[in-house]
Amino acid sequence: MTARIQTGRPYPLGPQVDARGANFALFSAHAERVELCLFDEHGRRELERIALPENTEGIWHGYLPGAYPGLLYGYRVHGPYAPHEGHRFNPHKLLLDPYARELAGSFHIGDLHFGYRIGGPRGDLAMDRRDNARVMPKSRLVDDSFSWGDDRPLRTPLRDTVIYEMHVGGFTRIHPDIPEYLRGSFKALRTPAVIDHLRRLGVTAVEFLPVQAWVDDRYLVESNLRNYWGYNSIGFFAPEPRYLGSGNHAEFKNTVAALHAAGIEVILDVVYNHTAEGNELGPTLCFRGIDNASYYWSSPESARYTMDFTGCGNSLRMSHPRVLQMVVDSLRYWVEVMHVDGFRFDLATTLARGPNGFDGDAPFLDVLAQDPVLAQVKLIAEPWDLGEGGYRVGGFPPGWSEWNGRYRDAMRPYWRGDGGIIGEVAGRLAASADLYHHDRRRPSASVNFITVHDGFTLQDLVSYNEKHNEGNGEDNKDGSNDNISWNCGVEGPTEDEDVIRLRQQQRRNFLATLLLSQGVPMILAGDEIGNSQGGNNNAYCQDNEIGWIDWSGRGVAGQDLTDFVARLVALRRSCNLSHDHFLEGKIRNPTGRKDIAWYRADGQEMTEPDWYFPDARFIAFAVDGATPALILLNAHFEPLSITVPAATGIARWRMEIDTTEANGAAKGALAPGDTYEVPARATLMLLGEGGPETASER
Among residues 140, 175, 197, which one ends one of the domains? Predict the structure, then answer.
């Protein structure tokens, strides 16, 4: 093939296969030569090294006739090994194509993958000249053609969206209704056991933890652990091989098509803030060996060192136009070729950093806002990182939704029983207007959550006061110490029936509050069936029974809240409780009712001083909608006698939800002016009805 290599094209970047061969294009501004390396079908024997013949404005390219889907390849990039100048080229290290659509082989991070001599007297300043090709995974050419049939974007409006955060592997790893050979894979998510459960819940979108190819950290492997969550990306276009039973990325496409057919969107949790290569002492797998000075932020004191805004050793330099192009190309690929519906961006603040910190007009944010493909999908920021000024909740521009950590940090202490915070809680219930009501942003900018993958599960939130991360091998020092949790009187598992009942009631309180709030609710997979991680609040390395979802609680009375969640989701939808505008206590329609009204226990509307009562733990509010709803929250450990408030056109309030009941359902009705005792630690939802009231309905 060497004699027949042709000039090819500099665009598009990455591998492009056609009927005659393949074009290869790789960006490296500082390289002196780039070699395309071809391998046998097993990836063990290097067959040929072919110098890419042309460089167009920093893009090395060549067209190889006869190249075919399935061909295994990699790159060797020649240039200066000058760490003090930020350059770490090492042609002895085979490198992955940043644009590879599939990876072949498994990563085993050993000494051969490091570009410098480990343990040498000069540290990372001396080049390691040992070849790593035999043990390095390879990039694979693929044919992206796929018969999608009538699959098309669902475009579920954000106001109607209910997100279900899910780990692809752990969700099905020990699911009893899924064939063992499918468990832990994309294929498992297409089985009736999964599809039926998601439809029963009523969720409209699944948010996958990272599925782009990643690397297990060396220190974890040496401790017999793995990077379970996958926040250690190395291939931004390639699905993680461990989820592909056949190794073919079409498995992902088939899964997306099946979920779409069930009315469920797919959102990917993506990690573009850093890569698996770590800091300057990390391995050379891809970007570091291709052009370290371009891809990563270097320290202003010495280009030898990487800047770390992420806590993971490095930070991708998104201000560089070619790095930005790669990320946008990756996003477009997952939308246009893989048909995903949106993205949640891990540590999104890093993506908008410039030389002077976070920039609300950063190129990354501007590009996505004007991109005709990406501006139409769901864009969700994790609006913080570890750098200076990194906490940016409420600071992203229109077009973005954000994980609202302030919501979680209000609801947890409220249901723990903390007093004097009802003003804060009310603001979060109403979609955090203080954070998001600017620049024409809407309530859907707030993605509300009580629990997510990072932290306690809901069962553990009501069962543990302290974290129990001993299994992570870090002497229980990792993970947050501030969980704002309450164990209901006993730490961990118990046979005390009163404690068990209280924990179940608290779970219902959290779920009801979440699904009755304005904004976009997000549920952690397994919370509806009482999944526990044994108090581990940082199970990132637990690819085992700790991290996997335990389905034994399914169907257990009081433990399984699947029907309860489904009922809440259905009520949220049928009553039209989720609004496109911020609720401001104004009359907006002919009913004469305010869009939201807040009440004291005596049934009168709240006044300004009422919000600051130090022992207040009761919140009552009515939301107007297709069916008006009255929601009562009592986080106190004692019942509270209230007067049922009046509202224009409402003759009675019909009971729908009572979290003190094992199934969460309630019956009966109350009239305005009635006295009623709201149970301790309870959430009630009542729906308004007009017309005369009969005795049988009271």
Answer: 140
Amino acid occupying residue 165 = E
3-state secondary structure 80-148: CEEHHHCEECCCCCCECCCCCCEEECCCCCCHHHCCECCCCCCHHHCECCCCCHHHCCEEECCCCCCCC
Domain boundary among 140, 159, 193: 140
> CATH number for the domain including 652?
2.60.40.1180
Give dist(CA 433, CA 82) in Å, integer: 51
The H or E element containing residue 65 is strand 59-65
Q: CA-to-CA distance for 376 and 154, rounded, in angstroms?
A: 11
473, with CB counted inside 10 A (0-12, 13-18, 19+), is middle
Residue 662, number of CB atoms within 10 A of its CB: 15
Catalytic residue chosen out of the listed positions 217, 308, 341, 382: 382
Measured distance CA(560)–CA(666) in Å, rounded: 18
Task: Find, among 569, 621, 572, the residue nearest to 426 by Cα.
Answer: 621
Domain presence at residue 255: no
382 is catalytic: yes
pTM: 0.96
Separation of alpha carbons 654 and 282, rounded Å: 62
Q: For residue 254, tell me if it sits in a domain.
A: no
- HEC readout, 321-349: HHHHHHHHHHHHHHHHCCCCCEEEECCHH
pLDDT value at position 369? 95
Angle at 485 between CA 197 and CA 677, to 5 degrees: 80
**Is residue 256 classed as helix, strand or coil in its secondary structure?**
helix
Per annotation, catalytic residue among 46, 265, 341, 346: 346
d(CA 427, CA 423): 6
Q: Distance between CA 248 and CA 245 in Å, rounded?
A: 8
- Cβ-proximal residues to 518 (8 Å cutoff; 6+ apart), any chain: 429, 430, 431, 443, 446, 577, 578, 579, 582, 583, 623
Residue 606 is classified by DSSP as P
Q: What share of the chain is helix, strand, coil (3-state, %, to 5)?
A: 25, 20, 55
Task: Tell me whether residue 371 is exposed, middle or buried, using C-beta atoms within 10 angstroms of its C-beta: 0 to 12, 13 to 18, 19 or more.
Answer: middle
Domain of 86 in residue numbering reads as 2-140
Q: Which residues pair with 15 in a beta bridge?
A: 24
Number of domains the chain is built from: 2
Cβ neighbourhood burial of 689 (10 Å; 0-12, 13-18, 19+): middle
- What does the alpha-carbon distance between residue 368 and residue 379 come to, in Å, rounded to a whole number? 9
Q: CA 611 to CA 617: how far, in whole Å?
A: 10
Among candidate residues 83, 77, 65, 99, the one with its CA nearest the CA of residue 28: 77
Q: The domain that contains 91 carries what CATH number?
A: 2.60.40.10
Report yes or no on 652 lying in a domain. yes
74 in helix, strand or coil?
Answer: strand
- Known active-site residue 545: no
Q: For residue 696, what pLDDT is reported?
A: 38
Query: Is 115 within a domain?
Result: yes
pLDDT less than 70: residues of the chain = 1-3, 691-698
Token pair recorded at residue 456 = 């306690």
DSSP secondary structure string for all residues of 481-537: S------TTSSS----HHHHHHHHHHHHHHHHHHHTSSSEEEEETTGGGT---TT-S
Three-point CA angle 47, 23, 98, nearest 5°: 80
- Cβ(611)–Cβ(423) below 8 Å: yes
Taken in order 279, 283, 287, 289, the sign of the CA dihedral is: positive
Residue owning tokens 């207040």: 616
For residue range 578-619, what is the model confidence (pLDDT) as tens digits? 999 999 999 988 888 999 999 999 999 999 999 998 899 999
Cα 587 from chain centroid (whole Å):
37
Residue 4: the pLDDT is 87
